[in-house]
Amino acid sequence: MKLLRRLGSALFVLAALATAQAVQTAEPTLNHARRPFPVIGEVGEDVAARTFTARVQQVRCAAALKIGEHVLDTQGVWIVAKLRVGARSEPTSIAYAAARDSADRVYQTTDRISLDLVTGGLTMQPGLPYEGEIAIEVPTASAGSLTLLLADNSFDQRLDSMTEIRLSISDGSACSAEPTTVLLPKAVS
Amino acid sequence: MRGPDSLGRGWWRRNGWGLVALLPALALMLGAAGYSDLEFWQRGRPEAVLPAADGTADFAGLRMRVAELAPATDLKRSGDRPFVLPDNMTAWRVVLDVEGPTDLEPDQVIYCAISIEDTAGNRYNDEPRELSSARTPLGNCNPENSPVPAGSGRYQTVAHFVTPRGVEIAAVRVFFGGVDQTRYVRFDR
Predict the structure, then answer these.
(1) ipTM value > 0.95
(2) Which of A15, B32, B73, B133 is the residue whose CA sits 20 to 30 A from A185?
């Protein structure tokens, strides 16, 4: 009887450990549990994140960028999006911009040119929006399935809102072969 | 769960006080865990400290009052050329009279951040990008940046802001992040 009780206790402990392991395995990872809150929108409409609003006004793709006298080519294609962004109720900047393709690969904005509009370099005051263009270098095959991601924190976007705007490019192989320029940010009324 | 012990006490009798002690222990644990979160939350929503009836506020070892809050229509660029804002914007000037200890070295002065709040609750920071071409002093409560000579511990600090045209300013906020991140001085207009 004593042996049976001890055996039962051991089985109970094993069952508890197995249950704990199963629960831990089934739980989402910390990064998944704390993932950003998506605010989804379309090209041409205002999308309001917690601290800023953003509208993709136009989007195009090209084989090269023309920055002054310099031409920046790529092995993929350049996605150039014209944005109108503004702070909501407090001064803020957009410090994270990237494009995610249908395979969940994420491409951040290029660091080959300066993009103050989305790299934290431009602090916007409420009610005083800015317009400008950003450029992202992506593989040609990804160009047709991109979603633009914007957030105000460059290091950690978790547990905060993030705009997700589907970019209206249907086919990366149909991008312009001509180099395209990138508009600098300017205040708009 | 064993049967009665040598004194004839069952499991509940043996562990009764332990179970009772669990409740305050749980409360202490939750309190300790919540304290850091509470402080973090308070830093995100600092509490307003209001001035006395004569308009002066004592905070962070300084006595201060708002001497001026008005549109700044006389801003200059370098070389004394007039600075003109776009039609949709208004520049504002805030002048604080500050009184601090007389034996304080300039580099010992606590720095402040001044912002203004409109009647809709929107907040605007000083040194906005829109005024980057204007010649404006640093409004950070440091006597070295005072437009009038600092004497007897008395000096001024001047900050400039930009808002959309037509906005009414409701309050000036002075924040001493190096001293207290949970409170700020609020001068209602």
Answers:
(1) no
(2) B73
